[in-house]
């Protein structure tokens, strides 16, 4: 079986070229993008009603770009002046670098995890005396708040944006050889839109990361193309290896 079509369950990145273009150029595969989940902002007035006081905290935890976007949106809407002493704790380098969109890193105090949950939690443990603000979505990984509770670290969880399922009705009559997922929420959206969805024998599913892999298993699906792995550190590499293997059959 040759792979002809791939659906990426994320919005198109917007640039003319994407990392997936290599699959089209080398193998003639059609790659489509469709947003499976949407992010809806929580208005600042709702957070005021919850008596959120940003300046009661001297550190902020960021675990995603969305969290950064909505934190600074709320700061602007509330007309809060963030002091230069505020500390930022980011789960990985990619998240920390994204803050440059809003503020100069040299003027702030930045602490960055090494990309694993364990390394980030260890980082928080070294700074137990701080009062943390954790901007997040209504759907989030519980490892960080659970750890803060366990270590008796002061923190406030602030839901600044909601993650909701996208309308996927336009995909009802479209078939793709490979579906690519990057989060459990994408899989939830799939079944919210298509409760009777089944994985046919000739359809492959690619899942990024352990939580997505577990979500696929829980949904009764098979992660045909797991990533990242030692041999395939990126999703593009994993997809290309699968396409090559199919061409040999």
What's the structural blueprint in terms of helices and strands?
Layout lengths: L4 E4 L12 H7 L2 E4 L3 E5 L2 H6 L9 E4 L2 H13 L9 E4 L2 H6 L10 E4 L4 H9 L6 E6 L5 H8 L4 E11 L12 E4 L2 H10 L10 E5 L1 H9 L6 E3 L7 H13 L2
Parallel strand pairs: 1-2, 1-9, 4-5, 4-7, 5-6, 7-8, 9-10, 10-11
Antiparallel strand pairs: 3-8
Write up this protein:
This protein is α/β, with parallel strands linked by helices and 249 residues long. It folds into 2 domains: 5-36 and 166-247, Rossmann fold (3-Layer(aba) Sandwich); 40-163, Rossmann fold. Helices cover 33% and strands 22% of the residues. The chain has helices spanning 21-27, 44-49, 65-77, 93-98, 117-125, 143-150, 184-193, 210-218, 235-247; strands at residues 5-8, 30-33, 37-41, 59-62, 87-90, 109-112, 132-137, 155-165, 178-181, 204-208, 225-227. Strands 3-8-7-4-5-6 form a 6-stranded mixed beta sheet. Strand 5, helix 4 (93-98) and strand 6 form a beta-alpha-beta unit. The longest helix has 13 residues, at 65-77. The chain is elongated, with a radius of gyration of 20 Å. The protein starts with a strand and ends with a helix. The model has no long low-confidence stretch (mean pLDDT 93).
